[in-house]
Amino acid sequence: MAPASQQQIHPNKEAFIEGVDHILSRWTALELAVQGDWGDGNTKEKREDMVDEIVAFFDDAVRRKVKPEPLELEDILMAIMSDDFNISLEDDSEKEVAAILCVIFDECKVGNFATVDKLADERDAREAQGVGNQAVQSSQTVGRPDADEIAQGEDSGSEMESGSEGDSEDGSEDDSDEEMEED
Predict the structure, then answer these.
(1) Closest C-alpha among 78, 107, 81, 112 to residue 95
(2) Which stretches does UniProt call biased (Acidic residues) (predicted)?
């Protein structure tokens, strides 16, 4: 019997949580912090808490029936990286991470798990090649789609970890107020 603390999660939300985890596993700054045990230790727990905080941000937007704002999420990501990992981000990577998370949220909200499935396949392939725990190497060997490419289902090899100064708008057009966990 499942513990009382485990409640059934809507498949859309479950896929979104998985997507958040996949995106964070591709973020070089975060992976280096976790691997290097930066920020006074407990980095694996802090990373798990980061997933929870990101999901809570989107849950709050759903409750308030507003579209999640990437700028707000960027601020949250920067605060977590600074407070929990003692990292001052200077490469604007939080912008790309926030934009991609917003795209994944919009997709999962309507039951589209294609991007999350693609991210899972890429993560499995990286881990099978033995580079899953080597963030620097994986950023150089595995192409990373940017937010616009994910929204369009294309992958031209842009790297999330590169922190490129290219346009990282979330590209989503769905202004629906539908809840991710609607019955």
Answers:
(1) 78
(2) 148-183
| In the predicted structure, residue 123 carries a pLDDT above the cut 70 | yes
pLDDT, tens digit (0-9, with 9 covering 90-100), for 83-112:
999 999 999 999 999 999 999 999 999 999
**d(C-alpha 56, C-alpha 164), whole Å:** 28
pTM: 0.69
The SS3 of residue 67 is coil
- C-alpha to C-alpha distances, 62 to 7, 21, 52, 74, 82, nearest whole angstrom: 19, 20, 15, 18, 27
Q: What are phi and psi of 35, to 5 degrees?
A: -65, -35
Q: What CA–CA distance (Å, rounded) separates 86 from 83?
A: 6
At position 96, the amino acid (one-letter code) is E
Map out the domains of the chain as residue ranges: 11-162
Amino acid at 49: D
DSSP reduced 3-state for 7: coil
Sequential DSSP letters for 89-158: --S-HHHHHHHHHHHHHHHHHTT--HHHHHHHHHHHHHHHTT-TT-HHHHHHHS----HHHHHHT-----
